Protein: Cystathionine beta-synthase
Amino acid sequence: MDYAEHVIDLVGNTPLVRLNAVASGPTPVLAKVEYFNPGGSVKDRIALRMVEAAEESGELRPGGTIVEPTSGNTGVGLAMVAQRKGYRCVFVCPDKVSEDKRNVLKAYGAEVVVCPTAVPPEHSDSYYSVSDRLVTEIEDAWKPNQYANEHNPESHYLSTGPELWEQTGGRITHFVAGIGTGGTISGTGRYLKEVSGGKVRIIGADPVGSVYSGGHGRPYLVEGVGEDFWPTTYDREICDEIIPISDADSFTTTRDLAHREALLVGGSCGMAVAAALRVAERTGPDDVVVVLLPDGGRGYLTKVFNDSWMASYGFLSPDHGGGSVGDVL
Ligand code: PMP
Structure:
């Protein structure tokens, strides 16, 4: 019989899929589809590694509570791991996170505290401050702190990087990913640079307005990526290039992925693919561009995939339809 003992044993080893319709040049553009993780996103990888490391170090004790500011995906990963290991979870997230995503966390049995998005991180109501306060108030609480936990990038150094090298037979030449905590790009990037002797180019995709691409924290709508501060999990030396992508480009590309590649993925995936397509415009047939797609699209049906929502921000253009209720195609 071939079965896993628990869903957390199924984290990682996600497939690579070639983008055929949205990418038409000579360079293969391969998508690492992270929604195949059991919790539905790339964050399962860091959740598992951070919890196991905290158990090893004694920071997380049996019966303890995990408290974390998260935009949803890290929460799902943590909730999944916590359920297996018997911990309580309290998650703190900004109000721009869709209600669907918050309900998923609750469905896994976690508690969710919602905070305003439009306040600076140092404000007492920010989701960073509130989670800090809860850690001191709750007994035996442990905060993974994905923005400062070295096991976040390490999980990608140990899993995502080696997987990509093996899946491409060492032929990967460009790795493109969005930057939130920076864990994905820093850990995967470090592995790929080391194993290739510095040959693989690491390219960040970043929402216009975020600090990584020179912004000052101007608000944007794409979720899970970009920051208004510099987390220590991001290695500022890792990227050879960072490409700023507008919300409009991120969301129209996200819809294209569903409509033309049958990949129903989240808005940060469209952002990363928009950057990867720009990279592929200047590469040749011997190059291999890999772009990481962090999560699936079901958490965004009332936003990116909703025509009225898109139109209310002026994001719907005749060239970038993507299918959605009401379209005549
Ligand atoms: N996309 C989504 C939807 C995410 O939740 C995250 C994590 N915040 C990212 C991209 C960015 O990944 P990382 O934190 O590893 O930079």
User: Anything to note?
Assistant: Residues 27 and 282 are 9 Å apart (CA to CA). The pocket of 4'-deoxy-4'-aminopyridoxal-5'-phosphate is lined by residues 71, 73, 178-184, 223-225, 266, 268, 294-295 (CB under 6 Å).
